[in-house]
Amino acid sequence: MINLTVYNTDGKKVESLKVDEAVFGGSVRYPLLKQAVVMYHANKRVGTAANKGRSMIAGSGKKLFRQKGTGNARIGNIRTGKRVGGGVTFAKSLRDFSQRMPTKQRRLARDSAILAKLLRSDVVVVDGLNFKKPKTKELVSILNNLKIDRSCLVTVSSEDVNLYKSANNIPKVAVMPVSELNAGDICNHRKMLFTKEAFLDVLNREQASEN
């Protein structure tokens, strides 16, 4: 069992939660986790780099002059990559780098990512984050009170526009609802900050999926 302390926004201990590792799979599946992270990085690649090859250059395909007897170096048509204005040799073309994983594997990878954070004490739970209006300074103060000075993924139970806007100008801090959690974003941040409601929501979702 993992003992997880719940703090208030002032950084003071309020209560504690006991988390069973079995809820998140019991152990970290590192090969599956790596596969998921590679997939998420690959899916961010645009793949629009392209050059014009010989087939895309305007010009005749006729050989400019005969092969021998002219005293010049042998050369083909005007579109060859050896001439200025010709096509690029081994030209780059549009590519699709996207990868796919089955839904169950993505969920297992997400659980492994959360469990890895829990085992390394990189998960912080706060009793609530209530913003009546966007206030970046207030969120920075809360993060300092919780001793979070590295990249952080703030996880909430549902979308909160004021919280999103408050975190928008803070470097390396992202806000994400529980329903959108994935292994890639979890591993890209050093710390995870859950609201108590969001963390209980994660536990309920995991227990429901097991049943």
Describe the overall structure.
The structure is a single chain. The chain is α/β, with parallel strands linked by helices and 211 residues long. It folds into 2 domains: 2-44 and 101-210, Ribosomal Protein L4, Chain: A, CATH 3.40.1370.10; 46-96, no CATH class. Helix content is 32%, strand content 15%. Strands 2-1-3-6-4-5 form a 6-stranded mixed β-sheet. Helix 1 (30-43) crosses helix 2 (103-119) and helix 3 (136-145) crosses helix 4 (161-167). The model has no long low-confidence stretch (mean pLDDT 90).
| Protein structure class | alpha/beta
Specify the helix fraction band: 25-40%
Gross morphology? elongated
**Alpha-carbon distance between the termini?**
20 Å
Question: What's the number of extended β-strand segments?
Answer: 6
Give the CATH H-level superfamily of the largest domain.
Answer: Ribosomal protein L4/L1
Fold-level CATH name of the largest domain: Ribosomal Protein L4, Chain: A
Annotation field: number of helices:
6
The spatial strand order of the largest sheet comes to 2-1-3-6-4-5
Low-confidence stretches: none
- Radius of gyration from the alpha-carbon trace, in angstroms: 27 Å
The CATH class of the largest domain: Alpha Beta
What sequence of helices (H) and strands (E) makes up the elements? EEHHEHEHEHEH
Q: List the domain count as a whole number.
A: 2
The CATH architecture name of the largest domain reads 3-Layer(aba) Sandwich
Largest sheet: 6 strands, mixed
Portion in beta strands: 15-25%
